[in-house]
Amino acid sequence: MKAVIVDDKFSAREDLKDVLQDLFPEITLVAEAGNAADAVLALEKHRPDLVFMDIDLSSDRTGFEVLEAVNIPEMYVVFVSDYIELAVKAFRINNTLDFLSKPIDENHLNEAIGRVKKQLALQSNAAEDTTKYNAEKGPKPTQSRITLSDQHRMLFPYIEDIIFLEADNGTVDFYLEGKMPKMSVTRTLGEYEDFFKKYNESFVRCGRSYILNREKVVGFIRETRAIQMSNGKEIPLPAKMTIKDLLGYEPD
Questions:
Q1: Hey, how many other C-beta atoms are within 10 angstroms of the C-beta on 136?
Q2: Domain 2-129 maps to which CATH number in 3.30.420.60, 3.40.50.2000, 1.10.1420.10, 3.40.50.2300?
Q3: pTM over 0.70
């Protein structure tokens, strides 16, 4: 597990490092930062599994603003602060798992690390389920499902009910038929492109941001070169791509 410590006080960083090294050898401290600017650089460079984040960084930005400045949806946050009154705001931040008051109680720290381990295990299992698609039996067009999972829920839609996928800042959004909600998964579009090449030929990459289900294409607007999907969404057709490339045949 990779971790980063962000705290403007050197002594606080050293104390936390000592505890982590003594009690949690499975955690690798990849960086530390004493101000907001260094914190943003460290988080973007290392993309850790976990950040221990102080709130008052004695600079022009707070720990909250540091997290707003980076886009690492798979990173979990444990706040470490003297300001207990900010705990409610801290838990509104995505992926916040705990709030530890200073000085850190080792029992509370152990509980926080336990929560992080549990979430990472769930995330790992969900990723494996998403990319593994009953390879031994092969695809079954009317029965096959895919598992989509985030830290809050799991969906099991039929492959044929996927309308399209859209890349969105480190996640992939699945748009589905019927009453199923949009589902965002922390994976890359390239991973799903490889998945569908192996298991279902109805899906085709359309530019950098989309994978479309050919069976859900209902129209094409010549003036804007927009593909119309079954849910009403219009998706731009790349300049180097033709309707034949998209559909797999030449429409009349």
A1: 4
A2: 3.40.50.2300
A3: no
